[in-house]
Structures are given as structure tokens and as C-alpha cells.
Amino acid sequence: MSDWQVAFFIGLFGSVHCIGMCGPLMLAVSFGGRSAWLLAFDKLLYQFGRTISYVVLGLIIGLIGKQIWLANIQNGLSIVSGVLIILAALSRLIKHSFKSTGIAVKLMQPFNNMLVWALKKRAGHLLTGMLNGLLPCGFVYLALVGAVNTGTVLNSASFMLWFGMGTLPLMFAAALGSGFFTVSLRRKLNIVVPYFMLCLGVWFVLRGLSLNVPYLSPPAMDAPAICK
């Protein structure tokens, strides 16, 4: 499975969780008085706004990842990332939740304030979607872990682009017909998510071990040369 396919499926499975978390926010965005086609366009624009923010985050994390690859410690990072993802999956399977730290809440408060302002001022749907993309989300963090392992800034941004594309189908469908995704249906779909995370974590660990297994654990790559 390629990095882009992994990114897409992280977004697709993650959007099941996001519908419950961001669904009320999507419904809070004003689309008043528009025709059906314009309404659909506005909601699609909102989804693209989120994806733009994901790509920007990918560029930022890619700059960090580039330094990691130059230091030739990417295999260790892949193993650590995989272990963290496995622990996160196990915490969901055993119904254990980790409380957010006060520091994280304070860091994200400016984005929350901007989003509230955008909703009150009826800002453009693209802008509101971009602000939504910056809000704390476990699956965005999970995607960023994958992006930092891709090796280049461009690949990292592409990873987050495919992650955003993965979130689009279910999020867009939920925005158009929120009644379809009932609480009961979301709970049933959420059962699958931890198992997907578990498989993903194992894949990251195997990739970091460089066992020379095609597609699962390719051989270690030499660090790129640094131009003097």
C-alpha cells in the first residue's frame, strides 16, 4: 500500500469520527437562502477549506521531517510513530481516554476564537473550512505522524492532501444529508476505526524495522546527501 493510499484511508476512516465531532459545526455554518446547486457548492467549498489547512500543516511538518531524514533517524521515528498509534488504538478498544492537557487547550484557543468570529460574521465558507482544519483532531495528528515519515516537504504536503480527500466523501455527504448518519450508524462505523488504527500502527513499525518485505517493510534507505 502506498503512502497516498494510507493517507486516503486515514481520512476516510477518520471522517467517521469527525462527523460526530465536526457535524454540529458544519450545520452551524450559514448557507441561508441559496439554491440547491449553490448550497452544494458552498458545502463543498467548506470541505476544500479544511483540505487547504491540512496541506499547509503538511508543509510545516514536512520541513521538520526533512531534517529527520537528513539526520538518518527516520526508521526509529517510524517505529515510535507506530507504537504510539498502536497505543492509541488499544486505548479505544479498552475504552480508555486520555485527557487533554491545559496547555493544548490554551494553544488552540486563538483558533477557536477565530472560528467563533467567522461563524458570527458569516465569513466565506472557504475561510471557515480552513479555520476548522486547524482545530485539534486526533486523526489529523495521526495523519501528520504519517506525513512526517514521507521524507520530503512535497511528499508530506501530498500526504495531507490525500488525507483531506479521504475525509471529503463522508463529510460532504453528512453536510448534504445529516439525517443519514444517525448516532446508531456512527457508533457501528466507529467500531471498525480502532482496528484500522491497529493495522496502521503495525505497518509503521514494520516499515521502520526494514525487514526487506515488499510493500510492508522495505529496506532502509540511505540518508540524502547534503549539498555543501
UniProtKB/TrEMBL annotation:
The chain crosses the membrane at residues 6-31, 52-70, 76-94, 126-147, 159-182, 189-206. InterPro entries: UreH-like_TM_dom. Keywords: Membrane, Transmembrane, Transmembrane helix. Residues 6-203 form the Urease accessory protein UreH-like transmembrane domain. PANTHER family: HEAVY METAL TRANSPORTER, HEAVY METAL TRANSPORTER-RELATED. This is Sulfite exporter TauE/SafE family protein. It comes from Mucilaginibacter roseus.
